[in-house]
Design brief:
3 strands; mainly alpha
Length: 314
């Protein structure tokens, strides 16, 4: 076998590739870095815009206007606890619907369905997420409420938080199911085979092997689902009777208002005109938006830490 000559030996310079290739790689790196910087600048600009207007609003409002018994911008009552409670009510009801149905669908598609059935059912399930939320809002108002809520609870009116929460839950199912199914399907088959090898049943393998192994992805799916429920607007605006004002209560069978619903009413409704107190209620939109941003950010930070801890423990 012939020995390589000195000219044929590789050097550090030859490993860097041709100048043309390096120029292309440099261009791609600059392009991607610009995309990342633009995303960060837009995020910072949103925060600055919200914070600036929120500070202006807080400097013009009295503390008593932020702590009354209802959200009535036209009357100068900006009780954020009212719309916060409404948001939590709708989100909790939605997750009570989306969690069992979404995780059940994920378990079936990952552990019980054959590959052909999985390929057919999963796109159909994800199609549900493509239904416009305004359509689902009218479905909650015209079908869910009279066919499900009112027969069970005679005191429920035409508009109520329960029907809105169920509608948002249906909207959240595909997100929870899809993300959780991806996490469970990614669990190595060797774990399943080892469990089957010692005589475990499929049910035990699913709940005691696959589910714990994919718990970080499943928690991420639930957090994403909760964030989706918190941010939903149209279903709540239609089914919960969001009219721009609301009274503080904990009864899910009465009309209610959420933070996103309040923002929508202020942005496009008649409540953006000046109130009887001389304060422009439109300015409170930015204050509510900032609270919603902080709440969502805190939720994501807590979930991220929990997922890291679970991954480390497992």
């Amino acid at each position: 076998m012939a020995k390589p000559t000195a000219d044929a030996r590789l050097s550090i310079g030859s490993l860097q590739g041709s100048p043309r290739r390096r120029r292309k790689e440099g261009f791609v790196r600059i392009l991607l870095m610009a995309a990342a910087i633009v995303s960060m600048v837009v995020s910072v600009a949103i925060i600055v815009a919200l914070a600036g207007k929120a500070v202006t609003f807080l400097s013009n409002v009295e503390l008593g206007q932020l702590w009354s018994d209802g959200w009535r911008p036209r009357s100068g009552e900006f009780d954020v606890l009212t719309i916060f409670i409404g948001t939590i009510e709708v989100s909790v009801i939605a997750m009570m619907i989306a969690t069992p149905l979404g995780l059940g669908a994920a378990m079936y598609l990952s552990e019980y369905a054959n590959p052909k059935t999985r390929r057919k059912l999963k796109p159909i399930l994800e199609t549900l997420a493509g239904i416009p939320s305004v359509v689902l809002g009218y479905f909650a108002l015209q079908v869910i409420n009279p066919a499900l809520v009112q027969p069970l609870f005679s005191s429920a009116g035409t508009f109520n938080v329960m029907a809105a929460g169920i509608g948002v839950g249906i909207l959240t199912i595909p997100l929870v199911a899809s993300v959780a199914e991806d996490a469970m399907y990614a669990v190595p088959s060797a774990l399943r085979e080892a469990a089957y090898g010692i005589g475990a049943r499929r049910r035990s393998v699913t709940t005691k092997v696959v589910f714990p192994a994919a718990v970080s992805g499943i928690v991420a799916a639930l957090i994403l689902g909760f964030s989706r429920a918190v941010g939903e607007t149209m279903v709540v605006a239609i089914a919960a009777g969001a009219t721009g004002s609301a009274t503080r209560h904990l009864n899910p069978l009465e009309p209610g208002q959420t933070m996103t619903g309040a923002i929508s009413s202020l942005a496009i409704g008649s409540d953006q005109v000046k109130s009887t107190t001389g304060l422009n209620p439109f300015d409170s939109l930015f204050f509510v938006g900032l609270l919603l941003f902080v709440m969502t950010l805190a939720l994501n930070v807590v979930s991220e830490r929990y997922v890291r801890k679970v991954r480390k423990d497992f």
